[in-house]
Amino acid sequence: MKECLEKIESASSLEILENLRVETLGKKGVLTLEFAKLKDIPNAEKKAFAQNLNTQKTKVNEAIEKRKIILEKEALNKTLESEKIDVSKFNNDLTCGAIHPVNLTMDRIITYFQNLNFSVEEGPLVEDDFHNFESLNLPKYHPARDMQDTFYNKDYTLLRTHTSPVQIRTMLKQKPPIRMIAPGTVFRRDFDITHTPMFHQIEGLVVDSSDKISFANLKHVLEEFLVNMFGDVEVRFRPSFFPFTEPSAEVDISCVFCKAEGCRVCSQTGWLEVLGCGIVDENVFKSVGYENISGYAFGLGVERFAMLIHNIGDLRSLFESDLRLLGQYK
Ligand code: PHE
What we know:
The strands form two sheets. This protein has a seven-stranded mixed sheet, sandwiched between helices. The protein has a two-stranded antiparallel sheet with strand order 2-3. It has helices at 2-9, 14-25, 30-36, 43-82, 101-115, 129-132, 165-173, 215-230, 282-288, 302-310, 323-326, and strands at 119-120, 126-127, 158-159, 178-187, 198-208, 235-242, 245-254, 271-280, 294-301. It has eleven helices and nine strands. Helices cover 40% and strands 19% of the residues. By secondary structure, the protein is an alpha+beta fold. The model has no long low-confidence stretch (mean pLDDT 92). Bound molecules: phenylalanine. The site of phenylalanine has 11 residues, from strand 8 and strand 9.
């Protein structure tokens, strides 16, 4: 018995301890077999015999419980030690993401105009006919609507084809003066090397009393902006047409790839078109209830800027999520 208790006290694992329990108290355990002998013991000795066995059984049980607690504690400590996680440890192997060139360009343009005190406005991607066309001097059946290959929804809403509806939304909710830009996603039914059905624009609108607004003013703001974006470039304004501006112009910069010598990107012209702009048409102000006021507006394609700044050849590659391209902007 003494030997058995010693074994229990020095059991080195829970498994060994369990085996010892089975050996003594199990179905065929030594003590269990002793209890079986009870029926053959003369009555006079039965009580003392049983008492003795019960004492031994209690001692064994107590020893097992005591050892079990110690062994369990040891096992727990072992697991805690081996499964320890240092949450503050930095894994240098983690690959780090990069900001997409379209977002980089967008952020750069937004910051530029914020520094000139322009507010940043937003509007919904699903627009209605009034905000996207009608109020911008594009009545129904006007041929200029064909310039914008529109995605229409069944309920007569549409995916906005430009960020110009945000001009209308901003003028309807606040009074002049206004100095705003509206960055965002726009949609057109078009897909080739220079067009994707979803792309990004940044709209600009400045509205103030007529002594503060002039074409010269617009020209200066855009020239400064383009030189900040593209460095040492020539800027030229070409007469153009937009229904919501009159007069209207398209703005070109001298080709950043060939220094205006003529190359494939500028189709040998030496110039790259980068913006549309103009003086806000009277009819636009009428549709938002503004009177005796002037303004100028401009709109640009962010992807076009990103491609020229980062020398990216194919517009579609901006949307293919190819890590070889994206990884370059870390
Ligand atoms: N909304 C025009 C477009 O998407 C761009 C533009 C904006 C032109 C503002 C002039 C003034 O083509």
